[in-house]
Amino acid sequence: MKRIYICGKVTGDPDYKKKFLKEENRLFSLGYEPVNPAVIVPSNKDWSSAMKTVLRAMLLCDGVSLLPDWKKSKGAKIEVRLARELSIEVRDNSKWLKAEN
Predict the structure, then answer these.
(1) Cβ burial, residue 97 (10 Å; 0-12/13-18/19+)
(2) Is the pTM of this model over 0.70?
């Protein structure tokens, strides 16, 4: 089962947990193993520590699912740049369709 990391804007978005959970549920229903950074990091961590934690998680994934607002996030841009440099598959979230077995 492909592990898919969810990438989007967190800082400044009071509803980020709901948005990430919705994508987590969608990816799971399509047959993927979603990795939700919104549940990995405690909310009291500073930005730099949070990024180090989620980047480690992303590096163990097969792909990255981009939420529509990812370009508005400094952290998401870093995640996407690193994923692409390391040849981790990156797609807009609407492009992740039913997993091939």
Answers:
(1) exposed
(2) yes
